[in-house]
Amino acid sequence: MRVAGLIRYTAVFITLLSTWFIMQTYFDNRWKAISLRSWLGVTNKPRSEQPPRHKCGNKKSCPQNHFAFKIISGAANVVGPSICFNDMVLMSSMKNNVGRGLNIALVNDINKLDTFLQGIKHGTIVLTASYDDASTKMNDKVRAHFVELGSSHVSNLGFRDNWVFLGAKGMKHKSPFEEHIKNDKNTNKYDGWPELLDMEGCAPKKMD
């Protein structure tokens, strides 16, 4: 009887000793792993979700019945302008279809600008970005056409001014999509040119 009890106590003692050894080893290794990860600055933070991409890379999406657009003027005479409309890049240096002066979406012939503007159909949306200098490419007739398209600043566009504009043929009011910055040696960002203009927004499908 004494022998059986001694065996039973010995078995319990060995079981407790084994359990203690396993627990000690597990928590010791786990503590070391946690300490090492903390020392290395590694955390288990959840991965942040990628922000949604909007058309033309704009900051916000457009409501229904609106077109997303982004117009970026040229920077000095080094970086060309870019025009994106409804998530399609129409003009850019990468497409090799921009030039100094006025850049109008789908048009690359400044010599026929007056004829082109005169022939625009009612309701057509026109996107424009300057590059280097646009004013010397514009006479009074050309400026008048842009006024009809809804421009408020084209009449004051001077040598090497930066200008971006979105208008439409047949607008009854001035376009809200226009930015203009004067060439001023006291405020110019570049040597002889103002900083580039970056305008984005949502143009209604029917502009009047």
Keywords:
single chain, 208 residues, alpha+beta, four-stranded antiparallel β-sheet, 8 strands, 25% helix, elongated
Descriptive report:
The protein is an alpha+beta fold and 208 residues long. The strands form 2 sheets. A 4-stranded antiparallel β-sheet has the order 3-2-1-8, with no helix packed on it. A 4-stranded antiparallel β-sheet has the order 4-5-6-7, with no helix packed on it. The chain has 3 helices and 8 strands.
Itemize the secondary structure elements and their pairings:
Elements: H1 2-39, E1 66-72, E2 82-85, E3 88-91, E4 101-104, H2 113-118, E5 125-131, H3 140-148, E6 162-168, E7 178-181, E8 198-204
- C-alpha Rg (nearest Å): 34 Å
Please report the number of helical segments.
3
> Which parts are unreliable, with pLDDT below 50 for 5 consecutive residues or more?
31-37, 106-110
Strand neighbour order, sheet with most strands: 3-2-1-8
Structural class: alpha+beta
Q: Note the gap between the termini.
A: 107 Å
Number of extended strands = 8
For the sheet with most strands, the description reads:
4 strands, antiparallel
Strand fraction equals: 15-25%
Choose one word for the global shape: elongated
Percent range for helical residues?
25-40%
The overall pLDDT, averaged over residues, is 79
Q: What sequence of helices (H) and strands (E) makes up the elements?
A: HEEEEHEHEEE
In short:
This protein is about 25% helix and about 20% strand. The chain has three helices and eight strands, in the order H-E-E-E-E-H-E-H-E-E-E.
